[in-house]
Amino acid sequence: MTQITRLLALVSLVILAACTTKPVVYAPEADVIAARYQHDGPTEIVIFNVITNDGDRGEHAAMLINASQRVLFDPAGTWTHPDSPERHDVHYGITPAQLYRYTYYHARRTHRVRIQHLEVPPATAEYILRLAEQYGPVPDAYCARSIFDILRQVPGFEGLETSFYPNRLSEQFALIPGVWEEVIYSDAEPTERQQYTQ
Q1: Closest C-alpha to 125, from 187, 69, 182
Q2: Of 31, 45, 159, 168, which shows the fewest CB atoms inside 10 Å?
Q3: Interacting residues of 168 by C-beta distance below 8 A, sequence separation 6+
Q4: Would you say 37 and 129 are in contact if contact means Cβ atoms under 8 Å apart?
């Protein structure tokens, strides 16, 4: 890599970091390795859409990836937990307890969470995981757009039409054969909920 290429890469990272209010987070390798969690379920991707109950507005999108390990790509998200070290919006160690915490961090009196599952071949899941890890920190309001950017690079998903809106992501994803979904409601705020201890 030439000095000019390195300089351009550094400038691009600085500019991108300046576009978001969230600080750039890059956990140490030892923490990421220690948190690694391999889920025994099928290899899949799962789209999350956090929707307002009063106006049905999609306000945040994220993607769970179950490949050789299970991670959460939470672009420009605010959820954090010490047991799930983060690198550029990819959270590692997404055990059932962590997935519960994430889901009910968003599901509350004012919002529900639409969750869409799609089984994919192991190689596809692994490719999506690598793309998420390489994507870099995501600016505010780019949550759905970043997921579109990743999926459109994957064979079988090229037909998705890019959008900044989580609802458009959910609507298009729902049309893919094999997708099944659930919706999570809650009448409690995250601070009122008991910790999940499984």
Answers
A1: 69
A2: 159
A3: 58, 144, 161
A4: no
